[in-house]
Amino acid sequence: MGLLITSALKGLAQSREANRLLFYIAGSRGVSKHVMTYNGTLGATPGHMSFGLWRPTVGFFVSPRLAIEYSWLRKREYFEQIGRGVRADGKPITGVVRDENRAWAIPITLRYRIRPRENQRFQLEALVGLSYVSQSVASESYRTDDEEILDYWYLKAKGRNFYVMAGIAGRFALGKHLEVVGDYGFNRMLKNMDGGVSQQVIGNSTGLTRNRSIGLRYRFNFKINKPAPKETVTE
Question: What predicted TM-score, i.e. pTM, was given to this entire model?
Fold first, then answer.
């Protein structure tokens, strides 16, 4: 009897969930650091870069405890420094340094609610994800001595890599739809890297970099009304 009741309750819950479209939008702020390998004038010399500022996210519940979400990360930095002077003979001298860094990423994350009860205000979630990161960097420096260009240096490279992520999250309900969410995890590039090189680039031989953020999430709960089945009349 207990098994029959349990099966019936599960079937009822699944039918109710099937009549609902559950999704959420979120905005968070934090830091996501990544090891990068490049193609171009940098050759195979690895480096690292970090995303910050705001991170927009949209997520969908595929079951009462499992959600999949998509985020967008973007970064653009430009630096220019120009120094001007005059030689002893009155002729001009100039020094120029320019750096540009552009990057974007698409993280896809699975969030699994650890606690079975959904009505608790504080929840813990296990995180697993995959990210694609694209970055382009350019750097130029030179000096001029009476219109003659000296010590010219130019560098341009691109990096495109995939990363896996694992971590844990906590969320606290402020109301029926609004939640505070904090994530903490680690990223690792799928491409293999020598431990000694990783130690030089990020300070550890494991290749792990941190990923942390905090923000707000708003949950939508739309009920989809299905037409009632037509009754068959038997004579």
Answer: 0.75
